Amino acid sequence: MNATAATLLLLGAWLLLGVGTAAMLARRGEHFATSLSALIAWPVLLPMLTDTPRHIGPFASRIDTCFTALRGALADPSTAGIVTPEELVALEHALRRADGRIAMVDRLLAEEALRADPLATQLDRARGHAADEVESVLRGVVKLRVQVGLVALAGDTVPVRDRMRELAARVRAIEEISLA
Amino acid sequence: MSRPSLLTLTSQVLRDPHAVVLAHDSPADIGWLAPRLLGISGVGAALFGAVVGSYRGGEQVLYAALKLPILLWLPPLLALPAIHAAWRACDVEVSYRRLGLASLAGMARAGVLASALAPVLWLPYSVAVDYHFSVLLFAGTLGLAGLPGLTAIASAIPSGGHRRWAAALGSLGLVALLLAQTGWLLRPFVARPTTAVALLRPVEGDILSGLGTTAASSLGLYGEWEADRDGLLSRDLAPAATE
User: Fold this and answer.
1) Which of A27, B81, B114, B200 has an alpha carbon 20 to 30 Å from B150's alpha carbon atom?
2) Best interface-test mutation with A: which of B41, B185, B201 has the largest number of A CBs within 10 A?
3) Residues 6+ apart with CB under 8 A from A21
4) What's the ipTM?
5) What are phi and psi of B180, to 5 degrees?
């Protein structure tokens, strides 16, 4: 085998691994552009395969907006270290899981046959309760951003830490209710 | 705060890539950011490649524009697991996702800078400089655009650990080596005026011997080494005006 063929073979192997990663990402419901970029940048996108699958629920875009905004605020050097990236990721994951469960219940309630079941009313009530909780935590995330802004000016990090603990506890409660 | 537009993202990557990494360090954001950063680096590198290929003209413009993004993308991506392992060995806990994002931001920064430097390269190419000088000019300009990209990756590394210099030196050396050898495998970019225009040239020697020969030739010291005339998708063109 000559060197040119070896170079092409190496590039082909890279692309092949990229195609595999892209296919798996697409199957998990990732955007087309994300899957396409895995053709080249699969080593960067590989961790996404072990992340929680992306649930597209009724709160998905609000979760995106809230957390992108919060991360933007926390990127300021004056707020460094108040909230760790791991805490933020854990909170976001828990909210996405809750959002995914609400989406699943929505699909169930949309089925004509299941809506006639007497348990459907109970399910609908539980869904409403879970949605209220997610809504409330998202409002808390917005308040957290305001408090992060106050930290930048006043420097008191205690309210942010308290709010973060409260949000983590509320999200844990949503999970426990769901698992009960 | 909504997600930035492509133009805003380009400007952010140029001014403060570390802030871009911090603001998008989540599983959902990496999926949103990766195609955009790849696109920015790809377009920038392709523009730079087209200028490099314009030295020889013809199909070489297209070939170089296609290969330059690959040259920019592959080395940091290939080195990513090794860089991650090197920093962990020095007790510096850095998340693989953050390192990957920083690599993409670094590549995007290098791509934007390369496209900004393209006119600087175009000027001497358009006044018919010597081939060997043009190769050195290309390597120098690429290095100039790549270094700020590497600093973007370095800024993602948190403080702490021990023997940080070893990990930093190892990471830098690895990326530099991979960049050099990937460039050597994907040549020609500038294309020698006496050879056919080709997508890929057979591999002879290595990057260090190649740059050494070119540096000596630019000073008028020609050895016995002769480049292969042909290669993959090669076609003879009229010699460039500089010859």
Assistant:
1) B200
2) B185
3) A38, A42, A45, A46, A49
4) 0.74
5) -65, -45
Q: Which of A162, A108, A100, A87 is nearest to A130 (CA)?
A: A100
Residue in B1, B31, B74 closest to A72 by CB: B1
Write phi, then psi, for B197 (nearest 5 degrees). -75, 130
Instruction: Identify the three-state secondary structure at position B197.
Output: strand
Residue of B29, B8, B76, B232 whose CA lies nearest to A9: B232
Indicate yes or no: CB of A71 within 8 angstroms of CB of B103: no
Cβ distance A97 to A79 under 8 Å? no
- Supply the angle between the helices B96-126 and A32-45 in degrees, to the nearest 10: 100
| Terminal C-alpha separation, chain B | 56
